[in-house]
Design a protein that fits this description.
Blueprint: H1 3-30, E1 52-54, E2 56-72, E3 75-78, E4 85-90, E5 97-98, E6 103-107, H2 110-135, H3 140-166, E7 168-170, E8 175-180, E9 188-189, E10 196-199, E11 204-208, E12 221-226, E13 229-237, H4 248-251, E14 254-258, E15 270-287, E16 292-294, E17 297-304, E18 307-318, E19 322-327, E20 334-336
Helix pairs in contact: 2-3
Length: 338
């Protein structure tokens, strides 16, 4: 191929390339332009809000709240003493008011009365024998024997009369029958079996025998509530101060003497009592749930320059709702809820 022919081919190829490129470029201008989606708006960081409360000064108390009951302060069980037997008569019943010296019950005593009457005759007989010895001038030995027989007869009479007295139950003081055994005339009762319990209904105390008795000390003041009536009282006995020879049920109780008694209160009624175990006035107080415990230390979160910071504190009295801060917080600061 000649050089002139080669030059022609090269020029022709160059022209074709230019034509194709131009067509491609013009076609891009003829197509519709695709619109790009708008950029999303920039969001600002959300503002962090905290639940806070102001540290304040106030009074905090650790109060023990328990349930107690009213009971008789003065009561006594009554029985027939050393003599048992069949019931002859019952003269009272539970709930009845009685007077001191009133006969409450008695055993069947007809045989005993007959024996007492015979013994009185024996005493008189012995006295007559002794008087005759003196009148007839009997010797000293006989007179002494006769005098001894008189004393023996009198001792036996005194013993029988004492048995007659023990076959009856009398009220030892003015009061109310709090308990009466289920016995009727003709029933047999043993000696020393409690037949009645008498109590003074005007003299009531509060009794607590729960698991928190160790917190009570004699002389402590106790607040009490009976229904809607508020009372105050004083601790007069604890298990450690009860008489050594007192029954177990008396030793294992706390007794509180109320200053006043509502008219409607009765033995057996319940009451709520409150005993202040600890109290501090004018101290730093925060809600208890704002204080966290970690590794044996107590921590709170406080706001400082708009930021939440952790701080170690020393605590004191704790209640179910509040806690005393001895060191680490000042009044007016704001603590943050965890």
């Amino acid at each position: 191929m000649t050089s002139s022919r080669l030059c022609f081919v090269a020029r022709f190829a160059a022209v074709c390339v230019i034509v194709v490129f131009s067509a491609a470029v013009s076609s891009c201008f003829l197509l519709p332009r695709e619109e790009l989606p708008p950029a999303p708006p920039l969001r600002s960081a959300p503002e962090i809000s905290y639940r806070t409360t102001e540290v304040r000064l106030g009074t905090i108390e650790n109060v023990l709240t328990v349930s107690a009951r009213f009971d008789y302060a003065r009561s006594r069980g009554l029985s027939f003493g050393q003599r048992g037997g069949r019931i002859g008569a019952i003269h009272t019943q539970t709930g009845e008011d009685v007077r001191e010296g009133q006969l409450l019950a008695e055993l069947v005593t007809a045989p005993l009365r007959a024996e007492i009457e015979r013994q009185r005759l024996e005493v008189r007989k012995a006295e007559l024998v002794s008087e005759r010895s003196v009148a007839t001038g009997a010797d000293r030995f006989q007179r002494e024997i006769d005098e001894m027989n008189v004393r023996i007869a009198r001792l036996r009479l005194s013993q029988l009369e004492r048995e007659l007295e023990e076959s009856r139950i009398y009220a030892p003081f003015d009061g109310r029958i709090a308990f009466s055994a289920r016995v009727v005339e003709g029933d047999h009762v043993d000696a020393y079996r409690t037949v009645f319990q008498i109590a003074d209904p005007r003299d009531l105390v509060l009794v607590y025998d729960g698991t928190d008795m160790t917190h009570f000390r004699t002389g402590m003041t106790v607040n009490a509530r009976h229904r809607t009536t508020e009372l105050t009282g004083e601790v007069i006995q604890t298990p450690s101060t009860a008489p050594f020879d007192a029954p177990d049920d008396i030793r294992r109780r706390v007794i509180i003497s109320p200053n006043t008694l509502p008219d409607e209160v009765r033995s057996g009624d319940s009451a709520t009592i409150e005993l202040v175990l600890e109290r501090q006035d004018d101290v730093v107080i925060v809600p208890r749930d704002y204080v966290q415990t970690y590794m044996g230390s107590q921590h709170v979160f406080v706001m400082e320059d708009g930021l939440r910071r952790e701080r170690v504190v020393e605590v004191g009295i704790r209640t179910p709702l509040e806690i005393q801060i001895r060191r680490g917080l000042e009044p007016g600061e704001h603590v943050v809820a965890p």
